[in-house]
Amino acid sequence: MGYLRRRLSEEDIKVLYKLREMISRFSSEELKVFAYVWDNISVGELLFERDLYTIYKVSKPILVARRLREKGVIERGEGCYNLAKWLRKLRKKVGSFGELRALLDKLP
User: Fold this and answer.
1) Sheet harboring 74-76: ordered strands across?
2) How far lies 23's CA from each of 2, 8, 72, 102, in Å?
3) How far apart, in whole angstroms, are the C-alpha atoms of residue 108 and residue 93?
4) What does the buried/exposed string (b/e) look like for 49-73 if buried means 16 or more CB atoms within 10 Å of the residue's CB?
5) Which tens digits make up the pLDDT trace of 47-106?
6) pLDDT at position 4 over 90
7) Is the pLDDT of residue 3 over 80?
8) Is the pTM of this model over 0.85?
């Protein structure tokens, strides 16, 4: 945790705890969609729907995206989906979703 404290601010760590709590309540499809948006930060709507349906086997990606928008972790732009603004600073510091999961697992 010492390394984390040097690299991340107290605000970042608070966001990590909040995000860990939210992720623990995601369905498996919500987790797939969130991970996809986390890794891509911003993705066009058509590519979003195609990738999640064909690669990740999410049957109704747009409906899952709506639930995640309601939870406040992704946003809809003009023809695209974006990682929510409150998560972008953390995303730049943490990196990929795999790295995020590893970091969340290290939190006390």
Assistant:
1) 42-44, 80-83, 74-76
2) 24, 20, 12, 13
3) 19
4) beebeeeeebeebeebbeebeeeeb
5) 999 999 999 999 999 999 999 999 999 999 999 999 999 999 999 999 999 999 999 999
6) no
7) no
8) yes
Structure tokens belonging to residue 75: 């946003």
Give the separation between CA 108 and CA 99, rounded to whole angstroms.
16
Query: Which residues in 18-29 are b (16+ Cβ under 10 Å) and which e?
Result: ebeeebeebeeb
Q: Which two tokens stand for residue 19?
A: 């995000």
DSSP per-residue string spanning 44-97: EHHHHHHHHHHTS--S-HHHHHHHHHHHTSEEE-SSEEEE-HHHHHHHHHH-SH
Q: Report the candidate in 62, 1, 64, 56 with the shortest Cα–Cα distance to residue 30.
A: 64
